[in-house]
Amino acid sequence: MNNVILVGRLVQDPILEEFEENKKRSVIDVAVPRTYKNSEGIYETDFIRCVLWNGIALNTSKYCTKGDVVAIRGKIQPRMYELEDNNKKYITEVIAQQISFVASKLKDNPHEESK
After folding, report:
1. In this model, does residue 112 exceed pLDDT 70?
2. What are phi and psi of 95, to 5 degrees?
3. CA-CA distance, 26 to 16, in Å (whole number)?
4. How many whole angstroms from its chain centre is CA 100?
5. What confidence score (pLDDT) does residue 21 get?
6. Residue 80: is its pLDDT beyond 90?
7. Residue 27: which CATH number?
8. What is the DSSP letter of 13?
């Protein structure tokens, strides 16, 4: 079974891309804190690339901004692409199947609005 659940903050504002045949896509990076401390006593953070399609991409780009906390349920998908110099590059992404908007950066810090 290929199933992953992430909860973290958006690293940047989602940007919606539109393709032919009415397809929409957004690629986001989510900062997910680890649940344990490293040897220096610090919680490290993983930055995970997530791909959102169609309705999920549209709603996320409309309602979420950098710093918002989201929960993502999806699947891990590796893929390969070739660079201009014919070298192959391999990456692993999370393909989002569901996203929940947990908290807004503005709601977490009400004083942010007045700045």
Report:
1. no
2. -90, 110
3. 5
4. 12
5. 84
6. yes
7. 2.40.50.140
8. -
Give me the numbers of helices (H) and strands (E) for the chain, helices first please: 2, 6
Are residues 4 and 34 in contact, defined by beta-carbon separation less than 8 angstroms?
A: no
Q: State pTM to two decimals.
A: 0.81
Backbone angles phi, psi at 77, to 5 degrees: -140, 115
> Domain range for residue 32?
4-114
β-pairing, 88-103 vs 43-53, is parallel
Note the pLDDT tens digit of each residue in 22-42.
899 999 999 999 999 999 999
Degrees (nearest 5) of the Cα angle 114, 103, 77? 130
* Secondary element (H or E) of residue 61: helix 54-63
Total structural domains within the chain: 1
The answer to whether residues 61 and 55 touch, using CB atoms and an 8 Å cutoff, is no
